Amino acid sequence: MGAGDSQLIIDQFGAFVGKHSERLRVSLKGQVVEERPFHGLEHVLVASGGVALSSDLIQACAERGIPISFISRVGHPYARVMSSGLVGTVRTRREQLLAYLDERGVALARAFSSGKVKNQAVLLKYMAKYRKGNAPEVFEKARAAAESLEGFAERIQVVKGDSVDEVRQDILTLEGHAAKVYWEAAGELLIPETDWQGRHTRGARDLVNSALNYGYGMLYCQAERAIMLAGLDPYAGFLHADRAGKPSLVLDLVEEFRQMTVDRAVFGLVNKGVGLEVEGGLLTEESRRTIAEKVNERLETEERYEGKKHKLRTVIQSQARRVAVYVRGEGRPYRAWVGRW
Amino acid sequence: MGAGDSQLIIDQFGAFVGKHSERLRVSLKGQVVEERPFHGLEHVLVASGGVALSSDLIQACAERGIPISFISRVGHPYARVMSSGLVGTVRTRREQLLAYLDERGVALARAFSSGKVKNQAVLLKYMAKYRKGNAPEVFEKARAAAESLEGFAERIQVVKGDSVDEVRQDILTLEGHAAKVYWEAAGELLIPETDWQGRHTRGARDLVNSALNYGYGMLYCQAERAIMLAGLDPYAGFLHADRAGKPSLVLDLVEEFRQMTVDRAVFGLVNKGVGLEVEGGLLTEESRRTIAEKVNERLETEERYEGKKHKLRTVIQSQARRVAVYVRGEGRPYRAWVGRW
To answer: Is residue A341 part of a domain?
Structure first.
């Protein structure tokens, strides 16, 4: 079962998750293997088949506003349990949809995209600093790539237009160039044994891409939860265009968090040679557990945000609220979170 | 366990709901008590505590677009499992939110409200016709009440204004007068043994109101499902104003269905003297099961809709789609469904 203070990951086949008094209780073959008070619990992630949940647990979580997310073996979030009374006021969603048509949408799309590219630069610099002594040429290449990425981020920030539909193509083109630089440079920073043929999204069968996709799936669950709790519509994004069944605002919000949560966790595991495995194109159960623990550890790590230390998980929640505040016209312009190296 | 062709009601304490091949399987103490192919299944309603669900079942339902709703002992829908990929295109919700600001919202509010009042008249006439011979004075009173209701419905249909916020109070005032007429007249049509002190919503502890509230809870689940599948936001209603956590569009859509699904089912049970019971202000498990079966039977009943016979359940789904089509400006004005007596 998963560690983490506020997120509980259920990843064992055959686990039964029930409610016992004021606690969530996980049993395996009739033996209690974990208990967790509802107080302080923020999210339950079911990451295995063959798990059973009691309706009393579902009711207890719903009443306390604790979402339960379900993720498949390849990291695809396939379902969630939401409280029927949780989704809150519609005013935020009203403004969210209107923001799509005006300069607020442009500002958000620029912020999400440039935020991602800035964090790509940060992660390259973070990984490179350990190579300065033993591999100065690797260090220099990574630094050069990071500088190039910072250039792309600046160019994204000044793309102009009246609505997000007008500027999307320009932003995505710059983002595409940046992605090429980033993934090539990241590959150079992995240990030479790594089978890295470049980034692939859905349907990837190699180890690193499978691990990234699984981690991103966890991140999507986290961002979706944050977006729902902020009263936003997960399907009405800005940078990612409307498409049926695509949670485009989730995909928007994760952009600034991909590198410092998932990429950093996965690259760290790969470079430590911890023996992640794919079998028949799928991560093994043990590998999925290792990745989930590592990503969760990252989400529990404190990072600087608005002048204070906060867990990354909390930063994601705060940033979703920032989007809501911004579209409602109540706060300062939205700024992406950028990590430190 | 529940009957019904397309909705499955899980109402037994201790039931385990799993997936077996292409079927949903319900077991009780290790014995299979029901199997249902996923094909043709449209909705799973968990109406008891102490039910366990497997993650494989949840995945199978999510992949097939079958929502799972949870309802408490007093009929309060407390949670639902939704597919992460189901909620569809955002264009409908965009138009839904814009419709709130213009004459589309006015037309919808008038239709929902007058639809309810017309169906109140229909149900009184339906119940009265069996009394014409043996109690002509009861019959006459009910007919007079029905005529009065038809008058209110006509007045609601001609309320004028530029936005729903402008007309809401006028509509609700007329609706309030109608409700008084309806519930008084309905009380006269119940058998004399009935303890009927008038209509109470939340917190009711008497039999008839508790039974109505439980039935309405089932109807809310049905309408919420229909609204989500139509791509509408359940929290952005017209007649019912925005309020945090209130699924106002669900409350709007159920108006035209309350009488012919729930009231008719509950009044029928009461008048047959089937022995519904409250204990300590709560319906007994047996009573809840009886009500759920009867309401479900009504939902499975074929009624006239757009010139053809359709199950009431299908009519609810079609009406939700009609709302979506209307706000998108693609179809004729929305008209409430009105039953026959």
So the answer is: no
Closest-CA distance of chain B to residue A19, Å: 10
Instruction: Verify whether the Cβ–Cβ distance A87 to B235 is below 8 Å.
Output: yes
The number of folded domains in chain B is 2
CATH code, A178: 1.20.120.920
Paired strand residues for A302: A311
- Band (A251; pLDDT cuts 50, 70, 90): very high
Q: Are A78 and B100 a contacting pair at CB < 8 A?
A: no
Q: Say whether both A161 and A208 belong to one domain.
A: yes
pLDDT score of A3:
46
Q: Are B266 and B291 within 8 A, CB to CB? A: yes
Backbone φ, ψ for residue B178 (5° rounding) = -60, -40
What residues of B are in contact with residue A248 (Cβ under 8 Å)? Answer: 90
What are the pLDDT digits (tens) for A160-187?
A: 999 999 999 999 999 999 999 999 999 9
A202 in B contact zone (CB under 8 Å): no
Residues A157 and A302 in one domain: yes
| Å between B59 CA and nearest CA of chain A | 7
Q: Domain range holding B25?
A: 7-66
Enumerate residues 95 to 124 of chain B having a beta carbon within 8 A of any beta carbon in chain A: 97-98, 100
Contact in structure between A25 and A17 (CB atoms under 8 Å): yes
Please return the burial class of A67, using the count of CB atoms within 10 Å of its CB with bins 0-12, 13-18 and 19+. Answer: buried
CATH number at residue A60: 3.100.10.20
In terms of domains, do A106 and A255 share one? yes
Q: What is the ipTM of this complex?
A: 0.76
Asked if residue B301 and residue B171 are part of one domain, the reply reads yes
DSSP-assigned letter for residue A197: -
Residue A99 lies in a domain: yes
Choose the mutation target among A90, A225, A249 for the interface with B, i.e. most B CBs under 10 Å: A90
CB-closest option in B56, B100, B248 to A49: B56
* Chain B residues lying within 8 Å of A84, measured CB to CB: 77-80, 224, 247
Do residues B172 and B276 share a domain? yes
Same domain, B102 and B31: no
Burial class (CB in 10 A: 0-12, 13-18, 19+), A6: middle
What pLDDT, in 10s, does the model give residues B67-85? 899 988 888 888 888 775 5
Distance from the B65 Cα atom to the nearest Cα atom in chain A, whole angstroms: 10
